[in-house]
Amino acid sequence: MxxxxxxxxxxxxxxxxxxxxxxxxxxxxxxxxxxxCTPVGTLAHTRLSxxxxxxxxxxPMTTPDGRxxxxxxxxxxxxxxxxSELTKQGVRFQSKxxxxxxxxxxxxxxxxxxxxxxxxxxxxxxxxxxxxxxxxRDPLGVKPLYVSGAKDSLVFASEIRAILAHPAITASPDYVxxxxxxxxxxxxxxxxxxxEEIKPVAPGMWSLYRDNNLVQQQxxxxxxxxxxxxxxxxxxxxxxxxxxxxxxxxxxxxxxxGLDSSIIAKIAIDQLGxxxxxxxxxxxxxxxxxxxxARLISKQLGTDHTEVEITPESFLERWASMVSDTGLPLSTPxxxxxxxxxxxxxxxxxxVTLSGEGADELxxxxxxxxxxAHAFVEHIPDSDLVAGQFHLQSNAWVKxxxxxxxxxxxxxxxxxxxxxxxxWYQQSFTALRASTETSxxxxxxxxxxxxxxxxxxxxxxASMLASVEGRTPFAxxxxxxxxxxxxxxxxFVVGPPNRSKIALREAFKDQLPEAIVNRSKASFPLxxxxxxxxxxxxxxxxxxxxxxxxQEAISAVQNDPAQHWNLxxxxxxxxxxxxxxxxxxHIAQKYQLAAQSS
Length: 598
Description:
Number of helices: 25
Oligomer: single chain
Structural class: alpha+beta
Radius of gyration: 23 Å
Helix content: 40-55%
Strand order of the largest sheet: 2-3-1-9-8-12
CATH architecture of the largest domain: 3-Layer(aba) Sandwich
Low-confidence stretches: none
CATH topology of the largest domain: Rossmann fold
Mean pLDDT: 94
Distance between the termini: 37 Å
CATH superfamily of the largest domain: HUPs
């Protein structure tokens, strides 16, 4: 697992610009780093050594003839199969590192390699002879990748703050994305990030650039292979977990006591014979279910289990420091818990952990949103035509009717009534509806498109901040294709009683305790409603907050933050972010120190 960065240009590149970008990614790769200058562009890399930790895995890596060069962030889960196929075609491997396999796959098959590579990845491959650069991201969006244009150049990196280290890229806020964040607490949508000049590479997109011009683009989801109807859900999941176990360094697992993480831990310990597991959460009454259920399954499986408690003080301190360190607002409060547990497991010698993201989006785990969607489909005429608006509003943190009372006019006018956001939601749903048999299948597919990349970005950002690789066996392309081939009544059925993740529960009901198999989804296992208020006074001190939020909204949050926690969370996150880039960082530091001393 690594950090990648680079500049592609027909003009001479200042090496110091690339080094400045690389320096922002050292937490992603504390074990090694490299730089390669070519006639096409300059590539930079930081390495967290997981597979073949010897110097043979050093990056940037080139083919023996020097024509192709790669920087790669990810893990390849069909490495053995691809190496066998490439060896038959005359490739001679110099290492055991999967980077070399990806490099030769692209050199051999070009864009067609997207149908052969199975894994989580973001990479750049330069073809010096053809003077092009291929940027690619895995189909589920497990690994991040961002791009920007600067002076006839293409700038890319694993993290936004690395791109902003380039002197030609300006940290200008994207006001449309800021408004979208109020609605969804997601720091990006479509081609928008919270920074005007920076775009995310879409999950599954393979893009070929000459200089900063896009010359070809392919999507892994288009013409994807059909899943085998002969393979069961249990076989598919088991195969994915086993594929994710390959490592040359110690591995552990996150265990929340929910169905998804319990399935992964069960398969892993059956294969490995022993397993360390970790759980993070709060000991506050009503929020300690994760600890209790994780102890139950840990005892049954026989794992060596560690609990990491999140206190109000540690939460507030870490929240502010993570926004400062990453340069982005948090999406969900769980990011703090993910970082804290990853920091602990890294301290105990585990650079790799398994995690359960993906099961809910693929197999129908979100009961309340799916029940709402079912009622919407049943009772709204031509529901498909307004489904995007339904998804935008039904689970919004700040709803449309509230925004005029929250946003200052100057900011609101720049968003044009959220028209671009609305259009993106509807166009995304319409495209998914065209490829599904029923409206409910499209609604669940929309959860995968909308929720999953954000959850995976959250996991990547929080775990890599602690120099830990998070692996997600459910967020695997083979698993996704299998899940989306299942009829809706094998994933979610509206009751009473409502039944969620039916195929998963049926597949593993004989291997796990009934309490685990039938446990409902718990979204926020931290009592943030009672915690956010301790930062509320910051809104009154922050010039950024006063410039963007109305005094009415600021006063409401300050006077009763527990009542208005759904406003407080996005407002405070945007304020911490705004002060980080354009304001007074000492304001955030003041509240960090207050949390430490309390």
